[in-house]
Amino acid sequence: MSFDLAKYQIKSDPSEVTVDIPETGDSFEVTVKPLSWSKQNQLLSNSVVIGKNGVTSFDGDAYVKAYLKEYIVKAPWGPTNEAFLVSIDARLGKALENLVPKVDELDTDELKKA
């Protein structure tokens, strides 16, 4: 039996995802691209803040924004960039945040080594 690497590689084809905003009943499509394991780790690592005395914290806002900017390749509003993300209200923000994988138990010691 030989190892099939293709089975584990991400597909580069973008796909459409429906985003629902429960508070308004609106829904729309965005086109997203799969992010590799390495890219997801990079986004996590870049969101760890090392403060004074080596104390680390996780910047969830930076993580969500960075993930959405990488992940969404086509949307009704145009580019998903910083200007767009800081201009939206909590209803749309929460709906988009649901596209981002949750960081349940983040081991900042491991990320600090990355």
Shape: flat
| Strand neighbour order, sheet with most strands | 1-2-5
Structure summary, number of beta strands: 5
Summing up helix and strand content along with how strands pair, one would put the structural category as: alpha+beta
Distance between the termini: 34 Å
Work out the helix count: 5
What's the story with the biggest beta sheet? 3 strands, antiparallel
Q: Could you please describe the fold and organization of this structure?
A:
The longest helix has 12 residues. Strand 1 and strand 2 form a beta hairpin. This protein has a 3-stranded antiparallel sheet with strand order 1-2-5. A two-stranded antiparallel sheet has the order 3-4. Helix 1 packs antiparallel against helix 2. Helix content is 35%, strand content 20%. The chain has 114 residues and is an alpha+beta fold.
What labels describe this entry?
114 residues, single chain, two-stranded antiparallel sheet, 5 helices, 35% helix, alpha+beta
